[in-house]
Amino acid sequence: RKEVEQDPGPFNVPEGATVAFNCTYSNSASQSFFWYRQDCRKEPKLLMSVYSSGNEDGRFTAQLNRASQYISLLIRDSKLSDSATYLCAVNLRNQGGKLIFGQGTELSVKP
Amino acid sequence: DAGITQSPRHKVTETGTPVTLRCHQTENHRYMYWYRQDPGHGLRLIHYSYGVKDTDKGEVSDGYSVSRSKTEDFLLTLESATSSQTSVYFCAISESQSDTQYFGPGTRLTVL
After folding, report:
1. What are the Cα distances from residue B8, in Å, to A69, A70, A101, B29, B56?
2. B105 touches chain A (CB under 8 A)
3. Contact A96 B94 (CB under 8 A)
4. How does A45-56 read in b/e, with b if 16+ C-beta sit within 10 Å?
5. How far is CA B57 from the centre of its chain?
6. Which segments within B39-86 are labelled E, that is strand?
7. Which residues does residue B96 pair with via DSSP β-bridges, in sequence order?
8. B97 and A49 in contact by Cβ < 8 A?
9. Which portions of chain A are predicted below pLDDT 70?
10. pLDDT of the residue at B24
C-alpha cells in the first residue's frame, strides 16, 4: 500500500461545478499536510496548507480527518483555470521534513 | 515566488556520463531537497539537506550523490547516468522541516 494515495482521475467537470478530492495517508506520525497544484510541465505550487480545524481560501476548502487519516480538497464554482493536477503531500514528524506525495489527481474543467 | 533557480533546465546526455544539476536559492532557507517526478510514481525524494554539509538520503537515493558547501547551493550528481534516471528533477526549499516546501522550475534530464 502506498503511503499517500489519491484517485488519479481524470475528473472532467463543467464550469461552475463543485468537485472534491480525497487523499488518504497510512502513517499516523504524519505531522503537516498540504495541497499543491501542478500545471503541465511546471513545478508544483502550494495551494493550501491543511489545518486540523479545516481552512478555506476563497473557492477552496481543505479539511483534515486524523481519525480516518485522510485530507480533502473542495473546489466550488470551478473555473477553466482550475484545470491542473492536484497533489496532496504529507510531512512526517522528525524525518527531516520529508514530504510524501500522492500521485496527483488530474482535473479538467470544461466550458 | 520563492527565489529558486535550477540549472540546466534541460539536458540530454549519454549512458555512463556524469551529470551535475544545480539548485540555487536566495531565500536563506536551511532545508533543501531534490525530488524526481515520473509518470506513475509521482514525486519522490532523492536526497535532502538540513544545513551546510549536512545531508541525508531519501527514498530513491541509489545512483545519486549530493553536496551542499554553501547555504544557497545544493548540487545533485549522477556519477554514471543510466536510462532509468531519465526524469524531471525538482529542487525544493523550506525554512524548517515542518514548513511549506517551495519548488524550483525543474530540470528535464534525458539519458540516452
Report:
1. 39, 37, 25, 21, 23
2. yes
3. no
4. eebbbbeeeeee
5. 12
6. 42-51, 54-57, 64-70, 73-78
7. none
8. no
9. 1, 94-97
10. 98
For the cut 80, the answer to whether the pLDDT of residue B89 exceeds it is yes
Residue pair B43/B90 in contact (Cβ under 8 Å)? The answer is yes
User: Backbone dihedral region of B83: left (phi > 0), alpha (psi from -120 to 50 degrees) or beta?
Assistant: alpha
Q: What is the maximum alpha-carbon separation in chain B? A: 38
The whole-number pLDDT of residue A99 equals 86
For residue A80 the three cell numbers come to 477553466
pLDDT score at A91: 87
Give the C-alpha separation, B26 to B72, whole Å: 6
Binding-face residues of B in 66-85 toward A, CB within 8 A: none
Q: What pLDDT score does A52 carry?
A: 83
In one letter, which amino acid is B19? V
